[in-house]
Specification:
This protein has helices at 4-15, 55-68, 76-80, 83-96, 107-118, 137-144, 158-166, 189-198, 266-275, 277-280, 287-302, 304-322, 342-354, 384-401; strands at residues 25-29, 32-35, 38-42, 100-104, 127-132, 149-153, 171-177, 204-205, 210-211, 213-218, 246-250, 260-264, 334-338, 357-358, 361-362, 373-377. The chain has 405 residues and is an alpha/beta fold. Strands 4-12-11-10-7-5-6 form a seven-stranded mixed sheet, sandwiched between helices. Strands 1-2-3-14 form a four-stranded mixed sheet. β8 and β9 form a beta hairpin. α2 runs antiparallel to α11 and α5 (107-118) packs parallel to α6. The chain is globular. Bound molecules: pyridoxal-5'-phosphate. Pyridoxal-5'-phosphate binds next to α5.
């Protein structure tokens, strides 16, 4: 027995077909998973390059364990900051052309750190956070729990962004995702940067080299996948890295390991090292994980895996087009198939499972009501026949369930 409100909350979710439950994965290898006893081709993971299973990465993990032990044993400010952590930060800085970086145990923690340290303890109560409506929950929660005023603009709507910007306080943190986690489309960085320069030039006080408006990109799904050398959106051709003040991303997706980073100016990172409670009072991530992550980034940079992923994305889009499955408008590894209703969406995911395909149902509140979807993610490990099977299965399920186009 527990509190009545706990039972009521669960019952309400169940009633709305929105109860969430975990599925146990018994094994995973080469793009095939055994999930809740179903052997199927995995179109649910964020391991876009297959690096979580890469032999060289695994070997590095073992080496890292032998050299540094199983855990970091303390917070970074005590004695948990080890050589591989420092080296990984340097690798990130070089790739993103940033002065400094800070490792965190997760991307969720990284976003909490950024928001809450930016606007802590009602420092001046004149801080604003302005972000895209579709920002990840880790950022929104961080922003809501900070003392900043939170403003949002409609997804990728630059006119609305400019309007909201007018209402911001003098110290403003602007945030967008590089690649949006549920739609796979890119944040409109070029336009955002242009607006920042033209709409409120006075906010960028270049005299003191201090900017009152800082741009943060959450590149959880872009890092390792898009841009020159897989640097993420800051490596896109029309972006100068210096136009983005702060970049955060996780290593748990395309890089295949775990943990995350925040990269920016030395001054900002030093501020976090001193004032970010989630960092100061938390055990540093395992050094072996950092050691393996360095290896994984090096393999990602070589480019073959990113190229293969690109071919798989093109093949999937081509087959969808051929079979009249709605165009997802995404050119990245994230390819949403909107079903539009939570019940139907879960049924579709279950029906796919019976056909040997795992494509998770993503429902509201993770996505907007009415946009419940199968979130198909592609990986470099998929073979052509895997993608053909996926599209065949999607067509079969669509026919049975009669989705609208
Ligand atoms: C996954 C994700 C995070 C959180 O990263 P974790 O390392 O999984 O905690 C943050 N932002 C976005 C956009 C994400 O998709």
């Amino acid at each position: 027995m527990t509190y009545p409100f706990v039972q009521q909350a669960l019952a309400a979710r169940e009633e709305a077909s929105l109860l969430r439950q975990r599925k146990v994965v018994n094994s995973t290898s080469q793009g095939i998973i055994d999930i809740d006893g179903h052997q199927c081709i995995n179109f649910g993971s964020n391991d876009y390059l297959g690096l979580s299973q890469n032999q060289e990465v695994l070997q590095s993990y073992v080496e890292g364990l032998a050299l540094y032990g199983a855990g970091s044993t303390a917070s970074s400010l005590v004695c948990g900051y080890m050589r591989p952590h420092q080296e990984l930060e340097a690798v990130v800085c070089e790739l993103l052309n940033k002065e400094s970086a800070l490792l965190t145990s997760s991307g969720f923690a990284a976003n909490q750190i950024i928001c809450q340290t930016f606007a802590q303890e009602k420092r001046h109560s004149e801080q604003s956070i302005l972000c895209d409506k579709l920002m990840h929950a880790s950022f929104i929660e961080g922003a809501l729990n900070s003392s900043a005023e939170l403003l949002r603009y409609r997804h990728n709507d630059i006119a609305h962004f400019e309007k909201q910007l007018e209402a911001c306080n003098s110290s403003t943190l602007i945030a967008t995702e590089g690649v949006f986690s549920m739609d796979g489309d890119l944040g409109k960085l070029r336009e955002i940067i242009n607006s920042l320069m033209s709409v409120r030039p006075s906010l960028k006080d270049s005299d003191q080299g201090m900017r009152n408006v800082q741009l943060l990109v959450d590149d959880a799904h872009g890092f390792g996948v898009v841009g020159e050398e897989g640097a993420g959106v800051s490596g896109l051709l029309d972006i100068n890295e210096q136009e983005i003040d702060i970049v955060m991303a996780t290593f748990g997706k395309a890089i295949g390991t775990g943990g995350a980073f925040i990269a920016g100016s030395t001054c900002f990172i030093e501020f976090l090292v001193n004032f970010a409670k989630h960092f100061v009072y938390s055990t540093a991530p395992p050094p072996a994980q950092a050691y393996a992550t360095i290896k994984s980034i090096k393999i990602m940079q070589q480019g073959q895996l990113r190229e293969k992923l690109g071919q798989n994305i093109a093949l999937f889009k081509h087959l969808c087009h051929q079979n009249g499955l709605a165009d997802t408008h995404s050119d990245t590894a994230i390819q949403p198939i909107v079903v539009g209703n939570p019940d139907k969406c879960v049924n579709a995911s279950d029906a796919l499972l019976d056909l040997g395909i795992y494509a998770p149902a993503i429902r509201t509140p993770t996505v907007a009501a009415g946009s419940d979807r199968l979130r198909v993610t592609l990986s470099a490990t998929h073979q052509n026949k895997d993608i053909e099977s996926l599209v065949d299965a999607l067509c079969i399920v669509r026919e049975r369930q009669g989705w609208a186009e």
